[in-house]
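Q: I'm teaching a short session on how sequence maps to structure, and I want students to see two examples side by side rather than one. Could you give me a first protein with its sequence written out and its structure tokens following it? Keep the formatting plain so it prints cleanly on a handout.
A: Of course. Example one:
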Amino acid sequence: MSLDRWMEEEEKEFVSSTLLYNLYDKAKQYTKSFQKILNEEKNLIEEIYWNARDDVKKVKMRKFSEKIVAIDSSFEPIPMSLSIGKIAPIVIAYIIYPTNIKPEISVILSIPEELEEVSDISFMAKINELIVMKNVLEKIDVKDNIYAIIRDGEFPLNEIFFKPYYAKEREELMKILGKTYNLAKNKGIGLAGIVKRISTRHIAYKYLSKEEFKKICRKKYTLLNDYILADIILERGEYLLLGDYHDIIRYFELINPKNKTNLKKVKENIDEILPEVWNTNIVLYKPYSNMETPVKLLSYRLNIEKILEICISSTPDYPPYPDFMNIVDKVSMEYSRELKINDLFWLMLRKAFQEEEISILEIAGKTKNILKFSNIQKLELINRRLTRFIK
């Protein structure tokens, strides 16, 4: 029997017995746990449903002439064994929708001058998205008919409420946000963020008593999250306004009471430096698409019904998000995947280390290559790609 045939038979045997049995066993355990939580929270879900339905409104689909700038980023950490922090080339893309103008793409290396300053790649990607947002605002002319600039993710960033890795980074974030808000205000353009993966509990916070909500916050798992509740409460084309960012700070105080003192300082800091933050509206809506997936919209200086009409009217059946977000998401991801900038950077880093003669470490009579790949299969893939490229 050939090796391939043997592996195929072994795989069938494994899947048909061990794997499926274990998966089914885990599924049954989860189902029991889920049923228990559902029994505990069903009455609260119904209470929230009937209270929230009074505040639900409907949005109609329409043709629109307003243009949207959509921004997104993509990155892939370099799989090196060298532990010098989290570094990666970040691809940031923005598009103007609807238009035939070619998407703008930039590549940013999240590599600080000093390694002690190395931070989280995701946070650096967000910072650079804001810089692009600010730069776009500087270039926009009134005749461009831009109604809003929307990023894939929350806006403003939640990092303004929580201490990031370094205080200096938060200061930088506040500075960029301040310039962005001022430009948007002066040019009459709205700002927004669209959140696809919703994990907050704002609906429960809004419609439950303070004591009931505190009990929910103490639970490790609950069905009273915004995604599940919005899916139950909303029908296609409906939305629920949950309030503005004044409510956010009180929400954070309840879900994290130990951090209440720090949040008080944060609130004072925002009041002093960036009071515009509090004017951000929080909306959950459901498009007309067949999947009926709830989406969160965070908007600043935008007519809620108007921006929702644009979002819902531009949403296809799949993916169930506004087309401008689907396009910019694909542009940034495909560019990153096709060009493999992280692979190219690894090669340049290797070259730079070798030129400085520091790629080989000599310790205790041993020599080690400190630029080894931690993922050997990844290295083989790069070699194959380079071979094709050289040919």
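Q: Perfect. Now a second example for contrast.
A: Example two:
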Amino acid sequence: MSHAYTKSVRPGDASQPPATVSTAGPDLRRHLRALGLDTAEAYRAWCRQHGFGEALTKTWQERRAERQAAEKARQEEKARAAQETHWRALGLGSAAEYEAWCRARGLHATAHRSQAQRRKEREMAAGERAGAALAGARQQHRRPEYALQALHDGTADVGALKTPYLQNIAATFAATPDPGVRDALLRLLLCAHRRAGLLRLEPAFPHLGPQPGNTFIEGLAALARHHRDWRQAPEDWRPDSHNAHRQFGALARHLLARYAVPAFFDAAWCEGDTPEGDTHRAWFIHIGQGRNIRTAPGLPLALSKRAAHLLPSAPAALPIEAALRWAQVKALGGDESLIRALLGTRLGHTFGHEEFWTSVLHFFLNHPMLDPACVGPMVDYIHHVKFVPRDDTGQPAEPDLSMKGRSPLALGRRVDEWHRELARETRRPPLEWAPSGIGGFRSPPAPDEEGEAWVWTVTELRTAAELTAEGKAMHHCVGSYARSCAKGQKSIWSLGVEDARTGLRRRVLTVEVHNARRLVVQARGRCNKAPGDRRASARLGAAPHWLAQWARQEGLTVATYV
């Protein structure tokens, strides 16, 4: 390229004007942005610090080496920060203290430790702190039973509590002024301590994410608030499993249910103090009393008798809303591939305009040969033109849209045209939004079947222009997600592979994350191909592995229907 022949500006050369970003050309500006720098002077200083030449004009190989060095430095800094966060969580003041702590326990103090190893160390430290605190406190604090009783009575020295779960229980009691609820909570906590493994703070139900209420301790508090509905005493309960989820569900049924309640309803007790949580808990009790789900208060859709009959068969890992949709579509005759495709759309978690959306379901059911990969784009298109206001008119494009007389072929053409319009869209003002708080991902170089080294990356898309470019390259409608991303409800990520030699990146998957729940709700390849489809490409076949690696690194949950 022409810039390869441009004369370099030497430091201190008075005959040359000072180089700035504005005079350096677009290639250098892009390179500086990639390094996280603002000015040519900052770039020269960075080069000196990292052992690179200070010339502004360089070959692409030199710039790639600089980008790799910058990325390596970022990863090392991230690892150092994670390690510092870890040893501070252990109650230690320095890396040296952490190394001594590890040596005293026969552990290796390496920076690259897995999440499971760090969790075990935190649990070990928490247990040691709890033991030390209880040993040095009054008699009532020498065993957890005494600590729980003191927290209930209001006589505990809350400031002296070092164990995180006891601190959480103290906050729960502080937020519970009702004497009857406090007594019921104490009974449940003592029962959980003696017979189950429920006094823990990690999210109880992964699909709910780290939102308030989603721990077993807070789930016990929700059960305590319904103590007037208890059918049996918690002291009479005996767990028949070592699995915490099964223990919690069995305890809830022991207290409140005379009849069987589907397992996916257990999450209702960990949805926090929300209107949805209140409604779902009422459904749990309603079904547990032997009543039909069809008569439950606040049901968002009309379930047929067959749907109500099939509902208990819904997968236990599904969110409650998704289970209702699962039963509805199953009762209408939908197969697993159609149900999986629908649960990956807004219909899997959102209700409203159910009469219209039922006609959409019948459209899909009446065309069983329709590729399930087309379901998501069609639902997105239908919702957009019928319900989303246009920027210029403030009204949806087709508010009277009906499914009568439509064919899959004609609807598919309209979806394709909509995708092309999104790719050509230039009328909207530039839009960008803050980071979601979820980190990206970069794998070590991994060879493919031909021996070429590739680096798998996951990058957040944070502007409307980036979404449009992703949708144009991948031939789908992700460009329409800008509003949801700007509101912080969702984040969109590009999973791809980068040639370790040339730096060339190729997109493989577009991923949608529900930010509050830290839940991966959708992932699609080019032309909406499903992850893992090796018939489409070997990279798409390998993508689920790297999606899982990123999710594990960032504490995300991948929905069962993705």
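Q: What should students look for in example two?
A: Point them to this: Residues 91 and 363 are 59 Å apart (CA to CA). Also worth mentioning: The chain has four domains: 2-58, 128-295, 305-424, 441-558.
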